[in-house]
Specification:
Oligomer: single chain
Number of domains: 1
Order of helices and strands: HHEHEEHEHEEEHEEEE
CATH superfamily: Fumarylacetoacetase-like, C-terminal domain
CATH architecture: Alpha-Beta Complex
Distance between the termini: 40 Å
Largest sheet: 7 strands, mixed
Number of helices: 6
Number of strands: 11
Bound molecules: hexanedioic acid, magnesium ion
Structural class: alpha+beta
Radius of gyration: 17 Å
Shape: globular
CATH class: Alpha Beta
Strand content: 25-35%
């Protein structure tokens, strides 16, 4: 591993530990997208060595709303860790994070290993045990959430916490592209979307991930949850406020900041 990858992994970990936003890594190092993944891999290796577990995967920047908000047009992948699982009924302490935002996602619970090449959306649905709704709490380690694709990948795509709704649904008979979503902050509607916002269909987005991981010699593993990509722009999470996502068929999920 190059000294630059190690140095960038150190900077990411320091920003998390000190809850301090940093400048773009790409301003100090000429990182390609592959280099960004190498940094993410190194930080993941360290977290696993400290006892965390990977519990799933997250797709990022898969919807036009997110790509426009972040000014990055490339879908990206990050890991979900056991330490980021957050109970649905517990408030999120915003002072444990830098500048949290929340985004609504359709979540797949995968029952069978999926690794490309050649994984299709139909394969994903056949391997999916359950579908539920979720809110992802993201927290970029970059000042003003300003990053390139390589930067955000190095930062595990702003991973912080995930909350899943209480109701699990079988995928059979559901067209996930047609699932409607209403996003509210403190009871005020701020955005609407459908499942089609994430690459046409959440299973299409997940198939892309399985093919991407297969090319890296990795897979979506049985039991993983896949956050299939924010359907709307992310909204800030402030103390005293609550964000609720209500999905057709899938129910609703709320995150409250304290
Ligand atoms: O889950 C995500 O969509 C994160 C990808 C982009 C990172 C961000 O919006 O901070
Ligand atoms: Mg997300």
């Amino acid at each position: 591993m190059s000294a630059a990858i190690t140095a960038c992994a150190d900077l990411v970990e320091s920003a998390v530990a000190h809850r301090t936003a940093m400048g773009r890594l790409t301003e100090q190092h000429a990182l390609t997208l592959d280099d960004g993944y190498a940094v993410q891999d190194e930080v993941a290796r360290r977290r696993l060595a400290r006892g965390e577990r990977v519990v799933g995967a997250k797709l990022g920047l898969t919807s036009p709303a997110k790509q426009q908000q972040m000014q990055v047009a490339e879908p990206v992948y990050g890991r979900l860790f056991s330490g980021g699982l957050h109970p649905a009924n517990e408030p999120v302490r915003v002072d444990t994070l830098i500048h949290p935002r929340v985004e609504p996602e359709i979540v797949l619970i995968i029952g069978q290993r999926l690794a490309g090449p050649g994984v299709s959306a139909a394969d994903v649905l056949a391997a999916t045990d359950w579908v539920c709704c979720g809110l992802e709490v993201i927290d970029s380690r970059y000042a003003d959430f300003s990053f390139t694709a390589a930067d955000v990948v190095a930062d595990n795509t702003s991973e912080a916490k995930v909350v899943v709704g209480p109701a699990m649904h079988r995928p059979d008979g559901l067209d996930l592209s047609l699932i409607g979503l209403l996003l509210e902050v403190d009871g005020v509607q701020v955005a609407t979307a459908t499942g089609a916002a994430t690459m046409g269909h959440p299973a299409e987005a997940t198939a892309m991930l399985a093919n991407f991981l297969g090319a890296r010699g990795e897979a979506i593993e049985p039991g993983w949850m896949v956050f299939t990509g924010g359907l709307t722009a992310a909204v800030p999470l402030a103390a005293g406020h609550h964000v609720t996502a209500t999905f057709g068929h899938l129910g609703s999920v709320t995150v409250r900041g304290v």
